[in-house]
Here is the input.
Amino acid sequence: MAASLFVVGEIGANDYLIGVTGNRTLSELETFLPQILSAINSAVTDVIVAGARTVLVPGMIPMGCEPQLLAQYNGSIDASGYDPETGCITWLNDFAVLHNRELRRMLRDLRRAHPGASIVYDLYRAITDLIVSPGRYGERAPPVACCGDGMAASCVAAGTTVCADPSEYVSWDGVHFTEAANRRIACAVLERFRLMTEAGRHVT
Here is the structure.
């Protein structure tokens, strides 16, 4: 236990995604935040009490870049609602930033409560880097799904089309990342984790 890296999360992504696909407002999504943070706190505490000494807690993904949500809101948001650099939905990414800010505050409290454990945070930055500069990694822009029409449910429908080379895409089905994207995200997170822990600092 003490020699292993535990990844706790990402908790809350499905709650928010279901809320957004159910047309919940931003203020309604914000009411989810305290319960989700409490669940993360409980999960991290449980693994530390069980003997874990290094715990990685992923931040919330940039939801405004999810092809499923881009497809859902297509045509209903004016140009000012999109990030001109990434093509992602601004208010959804702003909400993910809010979640991550509150998560990092909670993790600081957990570190004080468990000084013998290393509790590290990362993920949002690695995914954002991949989305902002997909060409650098061989992926296509803007965010589109390899499978179906950007909606996860359509991937299993009869006659669904699939891209020729999934390694060129960040998203597999509009919600889940492709294997190639997951590999790049994992490598980026682990490399940053290695550099920060070697320097004796928390990944914040």
